[in-house]
Amino acid sequence: MRTYVQSGGRLSYAEPVDELRLETRDLDDGIGQTLLVAPAGPVRGSNGEFFRAEVDRLIDEEGACSLVLDFGEVESIDSSGAGYLLNVHDRLEARGGKLALLNLSPGVRIVIDSIGLTSFFSICQTLEDALDEVGA
Question: What is the pTM of this model?
Fold first, then answer.
């Protein structure tokens, strides 16, 4: 598991969390094609940029084909971040993978619902359901 921290425009490893933290975990026993990504903190503004850069890296450089995004510790997301999720969905689908969203807070769910993206995502309440959705 890796922990990245966005703090004041800097990306660092294992520093105290004050803005946004991302944890990643391999869900398919070392193959690395299905990953759990768990952001903690708000996904908006510069934090949203950090979130997008890290997810892009997981897809482009580490070859992730399917992602489970656990939003259990994300209290808010802006419309740009929610729109980015659609981009991730489309990119993963193009390579035969899937995206599942897990543990959406009411604030995150409202944004996704309000811009009409709910029908594009597998929204799950449990990790087991999310793993079923992505085929892991």
Answer: 0.80
